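Workshop exercise sheet. Pairs work together: one partner reads the sequence aloud, the other fills in the structure field after running the prediction. Swap roles for the next sheet.
Pair: D.N. / O.F.
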Amino acid sequence: MVNLFTIYDLTFFALFTLIAIIFLYTHKKNLKREGIMYLYRTSFGVKFIESFSKKYKKILKPSQYLIIFSGYVLMVSMVYMLIKFTWIYLTSPVAAETIRVPVLIPLVPYLPELFKIDFLPTFNFTYWIVIIAILAIPHEFAHGIFARLNKIKIHSTGFGFLGPFLAAFVEQDEKDMEKASKFSQLSVLAAGTFANILTMILFMFLFWAFFTSAFVPAGANFNTYSTQIVNTSSLTIPDNFSLSDDFVPVTLNGETAYANPIIIQQTISQKLPLTLVYEDTPAFNAKLKGAISEINGEKIISYESLSNELNKYSPGDTIEIKTTYQESIRLDNIETLTYNITLSERNGKAFLGVGFSQPSSRGIIGSIQSLVFQIKDPMIFYQSNLGTFGWFIYYLLWWSVIILASVALVNMLPVGMFDGGRFFYLTVWAITGSKKIGEQAFKLSTYLILLLVVAMMVKWVFLFI
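Structure field:
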């Protein structure tokens, strides 16, 4: 079902496309084709770049050391994450099926809907066009500012068009760039991603300020049922089960438990000594879902309040639990579900059997995600004081933070099409003193990284086509 905002968004897309076509047609003298893209050149912002680089020269000059250092940190981090991700993607039986989206695809409007990625919020056209501006303008102007700081001429600014895809650029004099010192070139190349990191920090602050003022806790989110890791040898697994089943009933030390069919298949095929099973609990048997918002009429707003309320009851008591359920984070409709559940016993206390699993905080993206989770605790269900509009702004800021971080990392990959490619080439040249070795290292890194991407694409093709 198409909601009202989607209709507004698609209408905005149609109007934007029409205005863009009219603008480009009436300004076609400034539009030139270069390769597969059409470039629209202007002098907009050139004076600003010139004046800014002169006015803040004393601050910008020493900041180049920090900018170059950040470039190396981003490059090393991204190469490590790419290798690790490729290994998991190629060896895991579930990673590619969970992610679903091909690794070699631009971030286009409604991508989560196109590939049915339910754990991601919608990414509509309005978000896309706003975030392109948030991403591209600071990135390109940073390139231009540090180019002028190092006496590299700026010819023009403008936009690039590849069908419906947009890009921004600041066109510098390539001869001046090549004549500049390696240090100067490195600072110009890394300046764009450094600007993205600064912009990301700004938007994280905006995200925090907006969320704390517009949202209130309204329930306890649980994301799993009670589980345990057990020895595979202690399980009795049925001979036949379907991977399409939600759970497979297994026997554990004479008692019933349940397992994910994909995990069981992986355990059997790889002869793993340990596996994860779901315990036979009241929450599991009731198929409890959604955020727990009430117990016998008492409001629940957090894990602590849920725990405190359950401690008031004894094993065998029957309680009424109300949950706030939303089938997908992209849907506006929210249901209130009611369950009557009899509590079991665990260590002499009443036991419901829900679990709260915190997401991983490992790696750069994990660290960024952890910062976001400190603002919006994933274990708490929140309500917007501004209704649907509040969630619209929330996800705009959420996508902005995620995309700014992702682009800063990807852009520093040592691959020809990215700033990181030339950055890597200049680094190897500076270390070895040989331009030829720098060029060879640049070509090798490009081919190796493309090989990793192709390998993942091949697996995706065999899985989904």
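Discussion prompt: The chain is about 50% helix and 20% strand. What would you look at next?
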